[in-house]
Amino acid sequence: MKVVVLGAGIVGITTAWELMRDGHEVTVVERQAGPALGTSYANAGLIAPSHSFSWASPRAPKILLKSLYLPGQALRFRPGLDPHLWTWSARFLRNCTAARAVRNTRRKLRLARYSAERLHAIAGDAGIGFHGVAGGLLYLYRSPRTLERGAANMAILREEGMDLRVIDADAAVALDPSLSAARERIAGAVWCPDDGSGDARVYTCALAARCAEMGVTFRYDTQATGFARDGGRIAAVRTDGDEIAGDLVVLCLGVWSPALGRRLGLSLPVHPIKGYSVTLPIGPGHKPPTLGGVDEDNLVAYARFGDRMRVTATAEFAGWDTSHKPAAFEHMLARVRELYPEGADYDRPDHWAGLRPMTPEGTPILARTLGNLIVNTGHGHMGWTMAPGCARIVADMVKGQTPAIPLDGMELR
Ligand SMILES: Cc1cc2nc3c(=O)[nH]c(=O)nc-3n(C[C@H](O)[C@H](O)[C@H](O)COP(=O)(O)OP(=O)(O)OC[C@H]3O[C@@H](n4cnc5c(N)ncnc54)[C@H](O)[C@@H]3O)c2cc1C
Is the pTM of this model over 0.85? Predict the structure, then answer.
C-alpha cells in the first residue's frame, strides 16, 4: 500500500519505520529541512512510564488559577481570545475529577509501558544508538513532606504493577554519585528502575536515516497544505509544490495537527503547551547526572546524553509561540545547579523552547477516519515515551490486526 506520513517528528518517523517494515511504500512529508526539528528537537529525554500521571486532576484547577496571579509558577495559564484554547480548557476541566484522573493515568501508563518496550525493540531492529541510559529515573524530593506526598501519589502506578521504590537521600546518592554535593538538599527519592532516558532527536534522525536506506521517500522542505478528495476518501495530499497520491494518509503533525485536520472537517483537541529546555556541554572534570530524573519540588527534569546535559521545565499556555529569552531559563538552571554544581559547563547554555501537543485527557488520538486517514497525534508531555508504541498500533490498524493494548480513550473525540 502507498502510505503518506505527514510530519517527521518522533511520531511520524517511528510510524514510517513500522509501516515500511510491514512492506508498505512510505513517503514522509515534512516542511522543515530534516527530521526532529519541531517538538522532538530538544525534549527532556525521559523514557518514563512513571510520568504517566494525568495533568487534568482535582488539584489542577487550583494550580491554573494560582498561576494567573502568582509569577514564576511551573505551570502558567494565560487566558486569551483563542476559541481553540477555551474549548480545550473546558474539556480539560471536565477531566479534573478524581475518577477521570485515575482512568486517564491508567490509560497513559498502559500505553507508555508498551511503548517503552517498542522503543528499544525498534532501536535493536534498526541498529541505532541514542545515548540511552538504563537503570531507572530518580524523582527527587527536597523535604520529608513532599517525599511522603510524592510516594503516596505513586500508589496508582504501583497498583498497576510498576516497580517503584521510595529511598532515602543516601540511597539516591549511591545510585547517582554525582548527587553527593546535594546530599543535604534532598530528603529522598522515588526510584523507578525500569525507566530510562535517551536523546529523542538522535533517535529520530538515526531512524529516519535507516528508513531512507530501506526505501522510505522523504519530501523535506515540503509543506502539506490540504487534500484532494475522492468522495469521502483522501485521494492525495496537496503541498506547496505538487500533489502526493496515496492509498492511506497518517497525520503526525504534533501541535500543528488541528490546522490541517480542519481542512478535513476534523476538530482535533490538541493544544500547544510550551516548555523550555537548555542543553549544556559536559567536559572533562564535570560530574553530570548518571541517571535522569526530576526535581519534583521544582518540576525541573534533567538527563545526560553522552557529552551533553539537558534540563527542561515549565508548562506555559503561550499559543504557538516558541520564542524565548535567557531569563526564562534562570530558575531551572539555578535549581539543577544546586543538585549538580559541577554537572556541566553552565556558562555555555544552548536555549530552546518547544510545544507539547496536549490533549485534555493526556492520551493521544489514535484513530482511523474518512476511510483512509489515520490520526496519530496529541502525545503531549510523553511523545518520546509513547511514539514507538503508537507507531506499532498504527501499523496493526493498517494490517487489520488487533493492537497489543486496548485503545480506549484514544478514539477521535
Ligand atoms: C520541554 C519539553 C520536554 C519534554 N520532555 C519529554 C520527556 O522527557 N519524555 C517524553 O516522552 N516526552 C517529552 N516531551 C514531549 C515530546 O517531545 C513530544 O510529545 C513529541 O516530541 C511530539 O512529537 P511529534 O512527532 O508529535 O511532534 P513534532 O516533533 O513537533 O513533529 C511534527 C512535525 O510536523 C511538521 N509539520 C507541521 N505542519 C506541517 C505541514 N503542514 N506540512 C509538513 N510538515 C508539517 C513539523 O515541522 C514537525 O517536524 C517533552 C516536550 C517538551 C516541549
Answer: yes
